[in-house]
Design goal:
Helicase, Ruva Protein, domain 3, alpha/beta, seven-stranded mixed sheet, single chain, two-stranded antiparallel ribbon, 9 strands, Rossmann fold
């Protein structure tokens, strides 16, 4: 089934098995190479067609789309996804899973299996979407890859529930990554996936995080760099207050006016300022530049 895998962390002690894909005897614990790979790559597979189907219900793809899949595993998601889009590039780093993956999707003409690390892939020049049961330990790296890809239209990926909630304001707080990218991307927690829907069962529940590029940016392209500078300055941490942080970088009277117009209190901790309020503040601070 589809695997949730983390970055390899190979034990250094004597008797430990080598990296995935190398032959050799199992470690002293008696674990097979498959068991070792599940631990070192954090592999957690979706439990059967029903779990895969529930995940794909949260995925928006069109018949003409090119889709890149992160960590295809043995092809459970790949096989179900292929009829819904024009082409799938299925990335899998674990050499032990590749035979089953190729056997399962070998008859699907619109599927290309790529043996390698998704994070080293060059983003396509044409519009594309990303899906996958992302390894929890590299979720941030995968999301960063997606945000940097100029032609990405959307990413609908399985992450830890806590990560998805943090990025979508689920705790009443907003992260730097979300606020900094909000004018160009929407962030949405689409559904929760119980940890019992994976094998082996992880310690925490998961969620489907949907990241979509906006058709029209909420900030003028000419002011994009200034918006990012303002957000980074705001998260710079002057006592936790957004007002105090921005007052160190902008004229005090301009900051006063911006907070008054946006309705944000001067003592509001930066994490509790919503993306919409950030945009109001930015608009007031740059009113003379437009």
């Amino acid at each position: 089934m589809q695997a949730n895998r983390g970055e390899p962390r190979y034990p250094a002690r004597s008797g430990s098995p080598g990296p995935p894909g190398r032959s050799g005897p199992p470690g002293r614990s008696g674990r097979s190479e498959r068991d070792v790979n599940r631990r070192t790559l954090s592999q957690n597979f979706l439990r059967g067609p029903r779990a895969v189907g529930e995940y794909l219900m949260a995925v928006d793809v069109d018949p003409g789309d090119l889709v890149l899949e992160v960590g295809a595993g043995d092809g459970a998601i790949t096989e179900a996804l292929a009829p819904r889009c024009r082409a799938v590039r299925a990335y899998e780093i674990d050499e032990n899973l590749l035979p089953a993956l190729r056997e399962r999707v070998g008859g699907l003409r619109n599927v290309q299996v790529v043996a390698g690390d998704f994070l080293t892939a060059r983003p396509p020049a044409e519009p594309f979407a990303v899906v996958g049961n992302v390894p929890f330990s590299i979720t941030s790296a995968v999301v960063d890859w997606c945000l940097r890809a100029a032609a990405l239209s959307s990413a609908t990926i399985i992450t830890q529930l806590e990560y998805a909630r943090k990025r979508t304001g689920g705790y009443g707080r907003w992260s730097l990554v979300t606020v900094r990218t909000w004018p160009w991307f929407s962030w949405e927690l689409r559904t929760r996936i119980a940890r019992t829907q994976f094998r082996p069962m992880p310690r925490v529940d998961a969620a489907v995080l949907h990241l979509a590029r906006r058709e029209r940016p909420l900030v003028d392209p000419g002011l994009a760099a200034e918006y990012r500078r303002m957000v980074e300055a705001g998260f710079g941490g002057a006592g936790g207050s957004l007002y105090r942080s921005l007052a160190r970088h902008y004229p005090r009277n301009a900051v006063d006016r911006a907070f008054q117009q946006s309705g944000v209190g001067r003592d509001t901790v930066v994490g509790y300022v919503t993306p919409g309020q950030w945009l109001h503040i930015f608009g007031a601070l740059t009113a003379g530049h437009r």
